[in-house]
Amino acid sequence: MGKTTGFLEYARQEVLERPPLERVRDWDPFHIFLADTARREQGGRCMNCGVPFCQSGIQWEGSIFGCPLHNLIPEWNDMIYAGNSSHALSRLLKTNNFPEFTGRVCPAPCESACVCGIYGDAVTIRDNELSVIEAAFATGNMKRRRPPQWSGKKVCVVGSGPAGLAAADQLNHRGHSVTVVEREERPGGLLTYGIPNMKLPKDVVRRRIDLMTDEGISFVTGVDAAVPAMAERLLADYDAVILCCGAEQTRPLGLETEGISGICYGTEFLKAAVERQQFGKTPLIPAAEGRDVVIIGTGDTAGDCVATALRQGCRSVVQLVRRREEDYLRDGVLPQDYAHQEAAALFGEEARRFGVQVKELIAEDGMLTAVTTTEGDTLPCGLLIAATGFAGCAGNVCEAFGVAHDQTVRTAEGGFSTNVEKVFAAGDMRRGQSLVVWAIAEGRAAAAEVDMYLNGYTNLVRV
User: Fold this and answer.
1) Counting CB atoms within 10 angstroms of each CB, which of 72, 164, 251, 386 has the fewest?
2) How much is the pTM?
């Protein structure tokens, strides 16, 4: 424990943020890193508890407590305070393959489990984590790690989201020849196409892909594994196949939408925005520019849709939340994430309406113009975005491989093997819609099982 009384002497200090009215004009990251001295003080607030609940990730009654990766949080917080950046990095990478992702997009269940937060403010664990990995990249301490020898075994990972990348990274370091195939033009899955640039810059994703390529992993894009002939080829060419295709099947909107334009799902909208803003594409999904936007749903995807619509120049934005406002209050206060701060600053009012849903669509000549709500009022609407979650995995991929599935892939109890020999599944495809940090944990655990299958033993740790 670097500072015995640190939690008493130092106050929690969040990362600084650019003002909402400034950042909403661009797609650049809006967080500003703390100075080194301030960050060391934040590391010194960690109490190195006798029982560090922050790193004991569990799921209980639908809620997550602690880090699913079991990050060695007290250890690298101690090293942050001591100024030992190399040791902090080594402890961080021992359990987390991609701290630059989780340090930006994870909702930090570790902080909810922090003992320091019981009677005060939790340690800034997520920000501390991000500072360690970004300092490592900036100083050149994040070096290529190639295995000393190759096993001669070949593994194909289908899907390059966080679960697929984690599985590929682990198996590559074990000496297996790993190929990651991706349906889209660029690797990264939802990290590339599902999270806006201001939240997760695409050059950060590209930086990691480039490093993994340098370490020996092959990335092949434009490959649709849902085609039966492609699935057969992959099964014939590789010693093991891991399906990490996410939870792609969207939950139905429950409204009559046939023949009406101006309606899309949240993931479609975000993907189109990334393609348009980052890659110069012209997707079919319309932008929010000049439109009245209504978003259905809550959670990160809905918030990202709000922030994206604002940056695209929407005329107005309303987010309809099914549950009551009381369900979201913390100590009597309604929390605002970055998107809702921006909407309030730009339009002068809260973007969310609670306890209300869309009842009916109003269209003219096939174009959506308004929606009526369950409260009886009418909202102008030129773009309706359904950020209503996911109903299941991509069934066409499962069928191409002959893998049994319902809403998720059916695997052996407590494991990752499917009913098809040498085919495994991990991530949201196996566990259902979840967090990036859980996807990484799934990928790591699946890699350990695949390594055992290929070698007859493994030294990889299943979290």
Assistant:
1) 251
2) 0.95
